Structures are given as C-alpha cells and as structure tokens.
Amino acid sequence: MQIRAVSTAPFTDQKPGTSGLRKRVQVFRRPHYLENFVQSIFDTIAAPLGAVLALGGDGRYYNREAIQVILKMAAANGFGRVLVGRGGILSTPAASCVIRKYQAYGGIILSASHNPGGPDGDFGIKYNTANGGPAPEKITEAIFSASKTIAQYRIADAPDVALDALGDSKLGDMTVSVIDPVGDYAGLMESLFDFAAIRALLSGGFRLKFDAMHAVTGPYAREIFVNRLGAPSDSVINAEPLPDFGGGHPDPNLTYAHELVEALYGNDAPDFGAASDGDGDRNMILGRHFFVTPSDSLAILAANAHRVPGYKQGLAGIARSMPTSAAADRVAAALDIPCYETPTGWKFFGNLMDAGKVTLCGEESFGTGSNHIREKDGLWAVLFWLNILAARRQSVAAMTRRCEASGAGMAASHPLTQTAGFAITSDLASVADSPSRMASSSIGNVSRDVEDIVREHWAHFGRNVYSRHDYESIPNEAANGVMKLLHGRFGELQGAHLGNYKVLFCDDFSYTDPVDGSVSTGQGVRIGFTDGSRIVFRLSGTGTEGATLRIYLESYEPDVAKHRLDAQQALAELIRISLEISELRERTGRERPTVIT
Ligand code: VG1
Ligand code: CO
Fold first, then answer.
1. pTM of structure
2. CATH number assigned to the domain comprising residue 262
3. Whole-angstrom Cα distance, residue 263 to residue 270?
4. Do residue 219 and residue 351 come from a single domain?
5. Please, which pLDDT band fits residue 408 given cuts at 50, 70 and 90?
6. Is the CB of 251 inside a 6 Å radius of any atom of ligand 1?
7. Burial level of 259, CB count in 10 A (0-12/13-18/19+)?
8. In this structure, is residue 136 part of a structural domain?
C-alpha cells in the first residue's frame, strides 16, 4: 500500500463550534477541505502507533465518501484498527458507547446533528476522546490552530473499503472492523432500564409513537422498541434513514417534528410520543396533547431516577447548561446533591462525569443524558420516561391490589397520587403500607400518564416556566450588534426596573471547570431579576449560514392555580422586555422568531 503525502494550504475557517466543525456539504467537498481538518485532528491528538479509532456518522449525504477518506487517512497515520459502523452508521450516543466499550483512543463522528442534510445541506465532523465524549475546548482549539498552519496530509492509495457487511478487512497494516452499529448500544440500554416492565407497559394497551425523522435513530428504535420491547412495528415512524432526511429538518421540536405533533395532538392520540434528531442525541417527549419542555424533563428524570434500575443507587449530582431552566436545581436541592451550571455544549459535562461529580446532565435544547456514556442520548431519555411510566403503573397496580385485599374503598382521586412521583415526598408503595391513609384514599381513574407526572412535579416543586425564541439566519452584523448593545448596557441595567421586574444582575457568563480549572468566557449574556426570572441572549455555535440569535426566557411560578397558563402568555412581559432592551426587531427587521420551543 502506497502512502502519499499531499501538499495542501490551510483554510481559515475550520474553527469547531458548539459541537464540531459544521459547514455546507459543498464546502466539505472542496479539494482538501475534509482532509485538512482530519489531518489537523490526527496531528493534534498524536495517537500512538497502532491505536484504535471509532468511526461513523448519522448517514447524511457525503457520509460514505467522507468515511472512505478518513479510513485511508487513518491507515496512513498509523492507526492499528478502525471500528466503523456498518454502512458508515453510528448514532452519536452509539459512537460514545463504542469508544468506551472497546477502549478506543478516540472517535470521529460525522454529523451536523439537527441541521438539514442533502447536497445543499450541512455536513459536520467532530472528534471524541477516549472517555467517549466530545473533545474539550483545549483540544478543539489546538485542532483549529493546526488547521491554520497545515502544509500536508497523509493518505493511503487504496481501493474503497466495503462497509455493508460485518467483519474485518485490511487497509495496508490497519484492520477495518465493520461492526453492528446497534447491538452494543441496545445492550447498554438493556443494562440500565427495566425492559420487562416496559414490555408489560407496551403490551398493556399503552401506545407509543416514536418519530425517527428519517435520521439515524430508525434502526436503533426498531431494534429496541419493536424487537426487544414488543411495541407494534408502526410505533416507529420515518424509520428509514435517508441521506437528506426526506427533505426534512431533523430537529425534534414542535415546529419540525410536525407529523408526530399532529398525531399526539389529534383525536385518538397515542399515550406517549417522542422524536430524536439527525444523529440521535436529542429527544422530544410528548404526552397526549402535552409537551414536556426539555428543562422539565431533566428535572423529572432526576426526581424519579430511584424508579429506574440503573440509577437506583442515587445520583451523585446533576449538571445543566446555563440557559437550561433551574427546574433541575430544585430537585437537586431536595435530594441534597450538587447542581452544576456549565456553558452550552455537551463537552463541558465530560469532566464532571469523569470525576464522578454528576450522574445526570441536560440542556434546554432537547438534550438529556447520563454517565452511561459521554454524549447526550435521545433514545436513553425515551427509555427513561417509559421506565418511569411503567414503574408508576406497577406501583399503582400493586397498591390497588393491597387496598382491595384489605378492603379499603377506592373511589375518586386522592392527594397521594399527586405526590406519587417523588422519592422526596412519598412513594406509593410505602403509602400503601399505611391502612389509615388508604382507608381515606382512592386511586380510581389513575391515569399515570406524562401530563400527570409533569403537573405533579410542578405542584411539588413549582413550575419554571420556560421558552426559547430563535432568530435564525440573521445577518452577522445585526446579531453582533445586538450582543454588543447588550454588553454596553450592563451598567444601566444593573438594578433597573423593567415593567414589573427589577434587575438583580447582568453579566456575560463565564465558567471555571471545577475539575481542571479551565476557563471559558463569553458564554451568553444573562439578565437575572430579583424574583429569579431570567433572560439570556446567546449566539448559536452550530449554524452554517448567517447568525442565529437565541433568547432564553424563564420565570418561576409556585402557584398551582397558574400552572395551566400557556408559557408564551406567562412569559409575555419578559418577552417584551427582551425585545426592548436588545432592539432586536429594529436591528434585524424580524417581527417574530423563526422557531419557538
Ligand atoms: C445547540 C444547542 C446546544 C447543543 C448543541 C449541539 O448549540 O443549543 O445545547 O449542545 O446545539 O447539539 P448552539 O450553539 O447552536 O446553541 V447537537 O444535537 O446539534 O450535536
Ligand atoms: Co444532535
């Protein structure tokens, strides 16, 4: 096998963003563009000779071509073995799982996540380290530096590797192992959750609908929900991964996952709906006619983790990204465990998990995960919810049996069902041990569904009313102008009265990693009010065209009587204030956000 050293010149724009390098497919297809970035990764990580690399992507357009290039470059750069998902497929969480399980030196994941794909869409590439997580900033910065001075890359002259059949082949001295992209991941899920209980739930009339959005999770969802958990095969929709995601936008939110949303808000809606994104690390959870905000989802998983086998021993701590609501903080306080606030992006959770400081992590952007891997994990979150729903049904059923056996009456609804979700307050099983409480109680008409769980959670902890408004593809100048204006206003805003709110603090968030002391600045403008409400402004680091400005809005509502209010209504005054102080409409000419989540 011939190894060629190809002369090249640097590109100036290979700076990784929130999650790797993302560009239009046409940009990646420019001569040397992909090769330069891959060589910059290899030069930076300086893997020992014979090291193992994991490789796979979300199947989007250009995935297969890029995999062939990277395989040949890995061979030329001295790797001993590459584990590549069959067909070049690995969801982001599955890649993290594979890196950890086979103790790879690192992994390359090809994905632009929720960004649209196809020849005119986006492509992306990122490097994950041996812990299975996204490379920390120190490494991504070094890769960027290398990309600015690169003069040559190394590539093997070899025919393409067959990717569609499992097994080993040779590329020069390097072994290419084509592995099943689903099996290891599905096995890991089975080790964390009570599959028997979920199977019983799904065979007991509970109806699930999962929308894979023609992205990578289709085969994973089929294997787990249909083959292993016995859900009917039509429970998984849009399950065929397509290089252009069927022309859709594989972002699981109320705007883009509209097929699922219509089903869950329609007549005869299923009990539970979920969707994942392009690379399988995000999740959206829906109940019948009900949407769970990702921030609430993190808090609810934490509050109910004791019901799930993999988390029965308790949580070491919780971490959330700064713009994520403080709902999880309230649960952490009640559980008496620490809660960490990190910048946006999963790379900031890795150190905390590796150091054993946190078990659960989450972001408002439909990302939740735990220390089982080092990426957020869409299907994991869905299984966690299903496990909670199954476990609550089981404990209600057990209690009903006990009550009937002891002759206690069961009629209308009882307050104990209001608190049944929380280890912190009461547990159905233990309450059921008390005949006096049982005698006055009833759990007739118990619908242990998603909305109940959320409302009970709010009743107990109060509701962190939350919304994010995205202004996509606005001119860079306008976006930067808004951020500059806000920075310039910190002084005048301090202590200011805005409508019914008084500003307690305003700053640009910076973070000092408690494990390695590294500092990340400029992570988003925060305006905090005296009542705990917040407005956050941040520029996206994942877009490929113009700028995306995100406004995150949060208020706290302890009063149950007000929990039914629509979030946009409840946040109306904060929304108004955010537009006023940022001059967003004037500067961008936009009347309303592109996407509201
Ligand atoms: C967005 C989200 C962030 C997430 C990131 C990667 O970043 O806000 O929470 O970690 O996407 O997710 P930004 O910089 O555009 O706000 V994924 O599923 O695109 O890998
Ligand atoms: Co993603």
1. 0.90
2. 3.40.120.10
3. 7
4. yes
5. low
6. no
7. middle
8. yes
